[in-house]
Amino acid sequence: MTAEEEARRLDAEDPLPTLRGEFLVPPAPGGRYAEAAYLAGNSLGLQPRSVAGRLREELDDWARLAVEAHTRGRRPWVDYHELLREPAARLVGALPHEVVAMNSLTVNLHLMMASFYRPAGERTRIVIEDSAFPSDSYAVASQAVHHGLDPAETVVRLKPRPGEDNLRTEDVVAFLEREGGTVALVMLGGVNYLTGQLMDMPAITKAGRAAGAVVGWDLAHAAGNVPLRLHDWDVDFAAWCTYKYLNGGPGAVAGCFVHERHVRDASVPKLAGWWGTDPAVRFRMDPDIAPPASADAWQLSNPPILALAPVLASLEIFDRVGMDALRAKSERLTGYLASRLAGIGARVLTPPDPAARGAQLSVRVEDAGGAVRRLAEEHGVIADAREPDVVRFAPAPLYCTFHDCHRVAEALAALG
Ligand SMILES: *Cc1c(COP(=O)(O)O)cnc(C)c1O
């Protein structure tokens, strides 16, 4: 059997057949294949076919009912965000009142830090990873400045050991045990955007909280990628975007988690807006806010329905499949790609242990930008370059196939 036949056999026999047919897969540049092998779902997930109809319904309600659609639409807009609550809670392992869909990711990180980054006395530092996504770096540095602190002293950037690509959990825990008394906030990525490393969130959360720090997670690359148990892990807060693995569309509305112990604590300071008051009294237009004991208390504005509709459509797919089945398929797909990449001698920097990675393999390739262009133009493989020398491949398990992974290996080998 050729490698290609083997890949097709794996697709045909997988216990979770691909849901590719429910997504709009872009055409492959180059002409050799009809469809792209789309490995960039960690940047922007593909469009579910169900999205257009959902948007059309909201546009129709706007046309037919205008302001009345707030209360009489087929999904009344005043509490539209409620429709996302249960699916989002299942996705991240939260209680329903611990999650809310609102804003965008970086905005939510700031709202969370406004509440939970409270530098005082010796305890002022914010711990991130050295390879944090730039938005997170900028956000924490600006929070330090906002509190009158020097970011160079306030922000700690954890680095892998010399010669290694990934952080070791034991090193993060040891740092927190040693210096935790000066740490106000630990805010790492659950899955690192660059290396694809899946952090040991329960262990790091435990160590951070034991050190007296607040622990928040950026789940941009974790939500919809790996199973999460935010409530049980005792995470203080988390935020995630919905346009990567969650396929919610460009700039789609983000998610936010606040642990139950905080939502019940009225003394937690919040930046407030009218959507954060109890809906039962919202339209009394009182001058004083009456926040509910839920993550909704962090909402500011009335939500953008047209940006929520695709997220709702997408979450329905995750609900139908379930994160555990999806993760199992993801491990099979990524494992297959890893073995094919090993076969061609690719230099993978993502951890080899399936438990320490999600659906992404990052490969060192000289001139990453040029390589990604050639992969697309010559092979119809869509991947993503992080200059100077990292190409990221994400076999998103809802719509990527073993055959796509086969195409990646063939294409990378052909680059030489
Ligand atoms: C994608 C990503 C972002 C993007 O932030 P937005 O506010 O959605 O533009 C931020 N942080 C991480 C870790 C990311 O992976």
Automatic annotation (TrEMBL):
Biological process, per Gene Ontology: anthranilate metabolic process; L-kynurenine catabolic process; L-tryptophan catabolic process to kynurenine; NAD+ biosynthetic process; quinolinate biosynthetic process
Binding positions (pyridoxal 5'-phosphate): L105, T106, F133, P134, S135, D136, D218, H221, Y243, W274, N302
Cofactor(s) required, per the database record: pyridoxal 5'-phosphate
N6-(pyridoxal phosphate)lysine modified-residue sites: K244
GO molecular function: kynureninase activity; pyridoxal phosphate binding
Coiled coil, from the record: none
Role noted for this protein: Catalyzes the cleavage of L-kynurenine (L-Kyn) and L-3-hydroxykynurenine (L-3OHKyn) into anthranilic acid (AA) and 3-hydroxyanthranilic acid (3-OHAA), respectively.
Similarity comment text for this entry: Belongs to the kynureninase family.
Record note on quaternary structure: Homodimer.
Name of the featured protein: Kynureninase
Organism: Actinomadura hallensis
